[in-house]
Every structure is written in C-alpha cells, then in structure tokens.
Design goal:
mainly alpha, elongated, 136 residues, single chain, 5 helices
C-alpha cells in the first residue's frame, strides 16, 4: 500500500511547473509527428527535411525524458516504475507509448495539485494561479 506523501508549498510549485513542462513536451511531440508526416507527404522527404525532423526528434526525446524525470522527482515517486517510466518517456517519445507514460505522470500531478485547491487545465496550472497560491 502506497503511503500518502505530504507536499510543502515549494513542492506544489515544483510539481505545477514540471507538469506544465511535461504537457508542453507532449504538445511538441504531437507537432513534430505532424511535421514529419507533412514533410514526408508534401515535400517529398528530401534530405534537408529529414535532417531537420530527425534533429527535432532527438531534441524532443531528451526534453521529454528530462521533464518527465523532473515531474517524477517533484512527486517524490518511490516506485521504480515511475523512474523507469520517466527515462522511457524520453526514449519512447517518438512513439505513443512515451506519451502514455507522460500522461500517467501528469495525471498523478493533477491529483496532487487539485488536492491543494489549484485549478488544473490541459496545460497544467497557469502562472497566475501559481502566483495566487504563493500569496496565500
């Protein structure tokens, strides 16, 4: 049985910011996948477009893994699956498996943030809501 973790206000801010970064990475992955298919279909997939998209894929793989790792760390994940998932999110960012791992960590963050009374949208907690939370 998992133990309930108590989070300080600083932890909540870290979780909120990390979740926003993870959701931004999810959007970037989706956009890069769309760009890949557009280059392949409409531009004929020339060498320049392949290099550009491949570079974006590599950058996004690193970014997705890094931000998912930071979210797992902010959530103080104790289970090995969360840490392995954070690393795999970056490695699997090209596939939708990585998106699932990222969404699972984001879901855990949403539960923690909502429990503290923060309004969580698709992209996480807004900076304005974070500022209001800090002023309490």
């Amino acid at each position: 049985m998992a133990t309930q973790v108590e989070y300080s206000n600083e932890d909540i801010i870290r979780i909120a910011k990390a979740q926003r970064n993870v959701m931004g990475a999810v959007c970037a992955i989706l956009l890069i996948n769309i760009a890949f298919f557009m280059f392949a279909q409409f531009l004929g997939g020339g060498p320049f477009s392949v290099v550009v998209v491949a570079t974006l894929f590599l950058l996004e793989m690193f970014t997705a893994g890094f931000y998912t790792f930071r979210l797992a760390k902010a959530l103080r994940s104790q289970d090995v699956a969360a840490w392995i998932g954070a690393v795999l999110a970056g490695l699997l960012a090209l596939t939708f498996v990585g998106l699932v791992v990222m969404a699972m960590e984001s879901s855990r963050a949403t539960k923690v943030l909502k429990a503290r009374g923060l309004k969580v949208s698709v992209m996480g907690v807004s900076q304005q809501d974070i500022d209001i939370f800090l002023s309490k």
